[in-house]
Amino acid sequence: MKESLLLAALVIMLMNSCVKESGPAIDDPPGFEAAEGTGVFVMNEGNFLQGNGSLSFYSYDSLEIFNQVFSSVNQRPLGDVPYSMQISGGRGYIIVNNSGKMEIVDINSLISVSTIFNLISPRFISFVSGQKAYISSLYSDSLTVFNTISGEITGFINIGHTSEALATLSTKTYAANWVGGHRLLVIDNVNDRVVDTVEVSKEPESMVIDRNGFLWVLCSGEWALTDNGWEKISRAELYCINTRTDEVEKKFVFPSISDSPFCLQTDGSGEDLYFLHQGVRKMNINDAELPDIPIIAESGRSFYRIGVNPDNSEIFISDAVDYQQRGFILIYDRNGQFISEERAGIIPGGFCFKKAEQ
Amino acid sequence: MRTLLLFVLILFPLNLSGQIPFYNDTIAIDEVIIKGTIKTVKPFGYNTADFDSITRSINQHNSLAALLSFKSSVFVKNYGSGGIATTSIRGTGATHSQIAWNNIVINNPMSGQFDLTLIPAGFFDDIRVFYGGSSMDAGGGATGGLINIETKPVFQKNTTITISNTAGSFSTFSGLYNVNAGSEKFQSVTKAFLQSSRNDFTYQDNFSSAERIIRRRENNDYHCKGFLQEIHLRGPRNLFSASFWYQASDRNLPSPVIALQSASGEKQYDESIRSVLNFSSHESKYDVKMTAAVLSDKLNYINRMSSTDSRNNVTTAIIKASAGKNITERFRMDLLISEELNSINSNNYDGHKTRSNLLTQIVANYSVSEFVRGRFLLREYLLDSKLLVPDFSSGIEWMISEKHPVVLGAGISKNSKIPALNDMYWIPGGNSALKNETGYNVELSAGYVGNTDKAFRIKSDLTMFGNMIRNMIQWRPGAYSYWTAENIGRVNTAGIESETCLSFSGKMVYWSLNAGVTFTRAVDKKQNISEMSISPQIPYIPLYQFNINNLLRWKKIYSVVTSHYTGKRFITSDNSQYLPGYLLNDLILGIKLNPGRNELDVNVKVNNISNINYQIIAWYPLPGRSVEARLNFKIHCRK
Fold first, then answer.
1. For chains A and B, what is the number of CB pairs under 8 angstroms?
2. Do residues A261 and A236 touch, judged by C-beta distance below 8 A?
3. Which residues of chain B lie closer than 8 angstroms to A323, CB-CB?
4. What is the C-alpha to C-alpha distance for residues A328 and A303, in angstroms, rounded to an integer?
5. B306: left (phi over 0), alpha (psi -120 to 50) or beta
6. Which chain A residues touch B206 with a CB distance below 8 Å?
7. What pLDDT does B470 receive?
8. Where are the beta strands (DSSP E) in B157-265?
9. Could you tell me if B488 lies within 8 Å of chain A, comparing CB atoms?
10. pTM of the prediction?
């Protein structure tokens, strides 16, 4: 009898000795409580397919960075390649590219409100009205139409091309056909239809709208296989487009064919443009020429993304280091004077600036 | 009493070891003194590992990846059944391990790796792991080690037919069929393998929402087939063999669960055709061997979502000629000349690429006395038209005394690895100016083999090793948004591995235990993490691994329990994230019967009996408890 009981106990113990959590773990959970006050969200993209992306929050109140804030609050990882984030109506909309989803969170507590699944490689969200947003897609020919009130996908706009950056004015939205493309699709915000196209040069990568309502488009130029191998075959160009006529107002051609500028941003006033090209370059919207030298040199770092605080024009740069270990956030004032650096997550990428009242 | 017996069967069912046969059908013969050359399968001074007949038998329907996970010194990086599987030996990467078929390296020259899922373990008669510098006899560049899979003809008059089928959870079915026929001078060996699985197991999703949801794995099915035909002709002093091996697999590749993109349409089709001709002649003082091989590998990878359609065809032609001479009773020399020509057609390369690799190697083995012997190997490569710095491997071993058969060994080697062709020509990012990697290996070992009496046997070894890899090829971010291959890595690995095999053979009872433990420290000296006082461990190299395999046989009933522990593995280079360690237990209960002259073996295997949730690669969950039943019928035909 004793042997039977012992055997039964051992077998049951063996059969139930489950490891409760089997997925990736982190040793030191951060002491984050809430993202109240002014601050900056950082999308740490993580390594593709490794699910180690995360969200960081730099607080202007404590001048401290909090990492892994989404997983800390919601007790689950954010997903694979969190790519961009926008704030609207007290909610944060986090686009998680390779998880094909959008996480909607309360912007202060970061508690998950809902998760929108089955998006095809989403990239950016742009709010076109109080209740409607468009979501771009790297792999599909459609923009997703999302109702922010009901929290549902209400339709798709077939634009015939993949899409990356979005820029919205009151009546229309521009969608950039980045990978292999050379045009902008103009969408009527009311009827959700493509109404025009604007031809630009190869690979329109990023866009901003300046203080005059003009659209600035940074095209990185084309790479292709040639007799010399994989190389750049067209120059990068910066366009200024009149959004009333959709005509090209100005065009700046980068001097060397190897120049590959990216990540165009503007400050809160819409007066100055910033982009990454062997450091951080700054130019005024009225300048007649491209900037010759960077205002912030790269100095051996791996600049990956840039953001400019719309309130104080402080420049946030992400340094991806070796793209494998946790990267850094470098903070500079509007003139390129260094302020501080903070350790973020793996491959820190896009920035989203939060005001106190949001 | 029955309860006690059941208790013993379940909890002490240990496995086996060494070369102990599965069944007690061995005929005892008187002691025979064999005098011969000093050529051995195990290079002096180095550790090697093999798999006993039972471990191979219970894994015959599994892939080589599953079999290798029985060795604590080999870490198999596995995406799951049917998924891609590579090895890490002694803390090195997948490209530092090689797979050889009868001493012909069959790694894909494009990736420099081999997908172990593509080899059914039951196709081969012997599988041996050559660690570190001991790998250089069969191949170059295997800094971690080389796994040699061998087919060995047994010249016998009678014909045997083996039919082996399994059916298991997740709609998994496999069949392995074998016909051996011939005479004392001629043997034909025919083997065929078929396997398919829906592989749609369930897993717990605790990451996509606040609720824990049970989901079913999608896009995870696979189909494999293989065919092997060998003929062997034996003369008085020579042997001629011709081998043909066809292997194909059609696999859907699931995304990591955190990506949740089931519609990616990711799949891979592999097809290999390998043909080898061998001729060897053995005279009393010298022997010669000639080998000609043509290997053809096709790999198509499709990802519908990212519009990827990668098509890759590799053809490799190999000619080898070797000669060995026993100069004295104590001194033997071997000379090898080998030419390997790779031809690649890939839509990821800029046109057709070829590479020629001419190798010359000389090996000297010398026995100083009955107890001390050593060897030295020197190798030179002519890669296309470029001579490389020569490689070497040397080892010495000392048997302390005949009474106490403890063997101490030491080895040191330099082993170059030429870049994989993807590293050189992949678009974008390939770098045709890459230099070869250089690996330095040192190891010290102690081994003991003893028989306390006729029934009890013990074999144990302990090895300390260290590797330094310089100019290691790593892909790093390049000028724009693509990565490029560069010679920038500096990796050091060091560790201790130990294995002990015990067995007891009684009249009705046979028991054996095979236990191994490995500690591996692997650091990338180029990694500079400012907050860390010690260098971080390289991702996916477990610090600790151990395994215990147990077999207990009583009359015709047997049980096997295997326990395998894999420790914490960091998954980021700064060690900020990790996968927890896990202990996996499998159980087999079976019976072997002998209807007439034939053999019938029926068993049931329960995998992961503790039903643990675990991941070998982050976000690729693996099945919980699952069951498979196997029927193995071996027919001995009369002549």
1. 163
2. yes
3. 476-477
4. 10
5. alpha
6. 21, 23, 76
7. 94
8. 159-168, 172-182, 186-197, 202-205, 213-216, 222-234, 238-252
9. no
10. 0.87
The nearest CA of chain A is from the CA of B536 a distance in Å of 10
Would you call B308 an interface residue with chain A, using a CB distance cutoff of 8 Å?
no
Amino acid at A323: Y
pLDDT tens digits, A68-102:
999 999 989 999 999 999 999 999 999 999 999 99
The string of pLDDT tens digits covering residues A97-146 is 999 999 999 999 999 999 999 999 999 999 999 899 999 999 899 999 99
Put simply, the answer to whether A320 touches B531 (Cβ < 8 Å) is no
Mutation target for B interface from A12, A54, A99, A260: give the one with most B CBs within 10 A: A99
Residue B96 vs residues B138, B145, B388, B422: alpha-carbon distances, Å:
14, 7, 18, 15
Coil, strand, or helix at residue A319? strand
Give the per-residue pLDDT at A27. 66
Given this model, what pLDDT does residue B526 score?
73
Mean pLDDT, range A205-210, rounded to an integer: 97
More confident residue, B480 or A62: A62
| CB proximity list for B639: less than 8 A, separation 6 or greater | B157, B158, B159
- Please give, rounded to a whole number of angstroms, the shortest distance from the CA of B60 to a CA of chain A: 26
- The minimal CB distance from A325 to the residues B10, B261, B529 is found for B529
In order of their start, the domains of chain B are 2-637 (2.40.170.20)
DSSP state of A62: T
What is the sign of the dihedral through the CA atoms of A59, A61, A64 and A69? negative
Looking at every residue in chain A, the average pLDDT score rounds to: 91
DSSP B308-345: EEEEEEEEEEEEEEEEEEESSSSEEEEEEEEEEEEEEE
Alpha carbon distance A121, A99 (integer Å): 8
Q: Cβ(A43)–Cβ(A352) under 8 Å? A: yes
Residues in chain A within 8 Å Cβ distance of B578: 24-27
B199, B203, B209, B213 alpha-carbon torsion, rounded to 10°: 110
Chain A CB contacts of B4 under 8 Å are 3
Contact B27, B38 (CB under 8 A): no
The string of pLDDT tens digits covering residues B81-97 is 888 899 999 999 999 99
pLDDT over 70 at A1, yes or no: no
Query: Which stretches of chain B drop beneath a pLDDT of 70?
Result: 1-41, 260-264, 452-453, 478-481, 527-533, 638-639
The better pLDDT of the pair A17, A81 is held by A81
The pLDDT value given to residue B185: 93
ipTM (interface predicted TM): 0.84
- How many angstroms separate the CA atoms of B1 and B200, rounded? 41
Query: Cβ–Cβ contacts within 10 Å for residue A245, how many?
Result: 9
Q: Report the alpha-carbon angle B414-B147-B168, nearest 5.
A: 155
Is B395 strand, coil or helix?
strand
Length of chain B: 639
Which of A76, A141, A228 is most worth mutating to test chain B (most B CB atoms within 10 A of its CB)?
A76
pLDDT given for residue A92 in this prediction: 97
Whether the Cβ atoms of residue A308 and residue A314 lie closer than 8 Å to each other: yes
d(CA B438, CA A86): 49
Facing B573 at nearest CB: one of A15, A220, A325: A325
